[in-house]
Specification:
single chain, about 425 residues, alpha+beta, 2 domains, 18 helices, about 60% helix, elongated
């Protein structure tokens, strides 16, 4: 595969660099904003952390009232937990008994401390004096969630309330940790599956003559893994959100990987990677197209107009996004059909319409209306091919009119089906 003439794509390179810088700036800005908005732990919890985990270097909020404790070697050495909001219904003698709880990296309780409370001071004082809060030290969380400690004589209500608070909050923590572990396992399986599909697609991209006989398998994997299983598809909505909100690599590493391949490979090699080998909706159209050998041949003037329509759709959607419209631009692309439970009725109609069209008109959506494909193609083509002189202003104007009608129809259908 020959490398494209890079010198003829310098304007596209400039645009790509501007986009990357804009996303980077927005990501850093939002990261600082989020850091400033994080709820700070109480001084009692900080003291508990310092006492229980003296090698603490920093803490990071990972969930409401839960912080990850990081050691000097940047390793996670424990979790810090507040038992306050979700345990406020547990009353001692005259009020709730909110707690600070620190758990080490072995899931053992290291420290429990009382937070400011409205419980009777003398009862609370007796609980502390009797060492009641130290009874959990070294106890595994799974044991603590069901452990009933003997009450302190003279502070029965307070000690029982503290015991129930520990059990309830650690039960919530253990459940959340279990769910997180299952989610992590699912994410790892998902990452491996997506990586396999991308590597498989790259084999088709670089060695088409050797692999094209297996193309149906790639289409099925794209639809099953990238579409339904992981929902990993590019869209104008996604790129727009990166420009407005930045990127979270922790949660979007798959999307970022796909985007880099989608934009960088065509730039250097002049051949579309994402649309031809990865996009699950494109794969769906291609598979359905195999149902019938009879295809509709559109007149050349119609093809000339439609082939320039998707770039106009892209410009319209970008304008809608930049001017802060309340319209949901994801409704203008059919990709969320793979996330059927969250797909709007308008998207379902749009997706079904173009899937049916693809039986007679190969990849009708991809070739004529897809704004994401138009964005990728901008970096694939040489500068002289973006606005070719052979295309008359009349054709460009008609294409713009078709794009306007398409966008109006899509958003109109979305609003109509929302009622």
């Amino acid at each position: 595969m020959k490398i494209a003439r890079i010198k003829n794509k310098l304007p596209q390179l400039a645009v790509l660099l501007v986009i990357l810088v804009a996303i980077g700036v927005r990501t850093e800005h939002n990261k600082k904003s989020r850091a400033q908005s994080v709820t700070l732990p109480s001084k009692e919890l900080l003291a508990c952390i310092k006492q229980a985990l003296p090698t603490t270097e920093s803490i990071e909020e990972v969930a409401p009232e839960t912080w990850k404790v990081v050691g000097g070697g940047h390793e996670v050495i424990g979790q810090a937990i507040l038992a306050q909001k979700t345990t406020s219904d547990i009353i001692g003698y005259s009020g709730p008994t909110p707690l600070a709880i620190v758990v080490n990296d072995q899931e053992q309780v290291e420290c429990i401390a009382l937070l400011p409370n409205d419980e009777t001071p003398s009862y609370v004082g007796r609980v502390v004096e009797e060492g009641f809060l130290k009874r959990w030290k070294g106890m595994p969380v799974e044991e603590a969630v069901s452990k009933d400690m003997d009450a302190i004589s003279g502070a029965t209500y307070s000690s029982v309330a503290i015991n129930e608070t520990v059990k309830k909050r650690l039960s919530e923590y253990a459940q959340a940790a279990s769910v997180a572990r299952k989610a992590d396992l699912k994410a790892i399986v998902g990452y491996v599956a997506v990586l396999f599909v991308l590597l498989y697609a790259l084999a088709f991209y670089f060695y088409p003559q050797r692999f094209n006989k297996y193309r149906i398998s790639l289409l099925i994997l794209s639809i099953g893994v990238l579409g339904f299983f992981y929902g990993s598809f590019l869209s104008v909505k996604l790129v727009g959100s990166w420009l407005m909100q930045g990127i979270s690599l922790k949660n979007q590493v798959i999307f970022v990987t796909i985007a880099l391949l989608a934009f960088v490979l065509p730039y250097f090699f002049g051949k579309n990677f994402y649309c031809s080998y990865v996009c699950p909706f494109g794969a769906s159209q291609e598979l359905l197209g195999k149902l019938s050998k009879r295809k509709v041949e559109l007149p050349s003037p119609v093809v000339s107009v439609l082939s320039r329509t998707r770039s106009k759709v892209l410009l319209l959607l970008m304008a809608i996004t930049l001017f802060g419209s309340t319209l949901e631009i994801s409704d203008a692309e059919p990709f969320s059909i793979f996330l059927f439970a969250s797909a709007s009725k308008g998207v379902v109609v749009l997706a079904v319409l173009f899937l049916l069209l693809s039986v007679a008109i190969p990849r009708a959506w991809c070739r004529y209306f897809c704004p994401t494909g138009a964005l990728i193609d901008f970096f694939r083509r040489e500068s002289k091919d973006i606005l070719p002189k052979s295309v008359t202003p009349k054709v460009q104007l008609i294409a713009l009119l078709v794009a306007v009608l398409f966008v109006l129809a899509v958003f109109g259908a979305a609003l109509f089906t929302s009622f």
